[in-house]
Amino acid sequence: MKKQIIAITTTFACLTAGGLAQAADEGFYVGGDIGRSSNNLKSPTKPSVGIDKTATNWGVHGGYQFNKYFATELGVTRLGSTHIGSGESTSTSYSLDAIGRLPLTDKFALYGRLGAAHHERSYSGFDKNHGVGFKTGLGAEYALGSNWALRTELTRFNNMPTQGTYGNASNVLSMGVNYRF
């Protein structure tokens, strides 16, 4: 937890050092985010065993913004590890998304995403399972300068591989940064 706080503080300090010019309307960008994922898990027994449905997630992404209204993005999201009793599940998602943006000011925009995601989920003592599903999300972005932007997003990963009482969806609330070239 200390490392995450130090990383977030350092990131924000670096971001505020940049100018406050308007963000470019097109070009390549890269970024990263960190947040909390929540998985739909159910206890296999009554009384229920200990369940840990939430995990820290992180992701990296890169994309191209065609204009101020549309972008595409490739991303990898590590959804973290969840637990049911002594069992553990770790999930990762690889995605390709279309992003529709609605600029409200020259610095602030709302956006939505729709994409396809390849999911990998490993279980303690078992091989990895794979699945392909939709990825949807809603977010907000604030330009700090001509190159840097902060964003926050609520994302849903659907059709994740299931086994036993591990559900097929994961919701993620994250905050991140983008750097535009």
Quick gist of this model?
The protein has 181 residues and is mainly β. 8% of the residues lie in helices and 66% in strands.
Question: What does this protein look like?
Answer:
This protein has one helix at 2-16; strands at 27-41, 51-52, 54-67, 70-84, 87-103, 108-123, 128-143, 148-157, 166-180. The chain is mainly β. The protein is built from one helix and nine strands, in the order αβββββββββ. Residues 4-23 have low confidence and may be disordered. Strands 1-3-4-5-6-7-8-9 form an eight-stranded antiparallel barrel. It is elongated, with a radius of gyration of 18 Å. The relative contact order is 0.22. The chain has a single domain (2-180), classed as Porin (Beta Barrel), CATH 2.40.160.20. Residues 11-181 form the Outer membrane protein beta-barrel domain.
Please report the first level of CATH classification, the CATH class: Mainly Beta
Give the N-terminus to C-terminus distance in angstroms: 31 Å
How many H/I helical runs?
1
Mean pLDDT: 80
What is the percent of helical residues?
under 10%
CATH fold-level label: Porin
Spans with pLDDT under 50 lasting ≥5 residues? Answer: 4-23
Q: Which class do the helix and strand fractions yield?
A: mainly beta
| Largest beta sheet: strand ordering | 1-3-4-5-6-7-8-9
Order of helices and strands: HEEEEEEEEE
Main pleated sheet: 8 strands, antiparallel, barrel
The number of domains: 1
Q: What is the 3D shape?
A: elongated
Counted beta strands: 9
Radius of gyration: 18 Å
Strand content: over 45%
CATH architecture: Beta Barrel
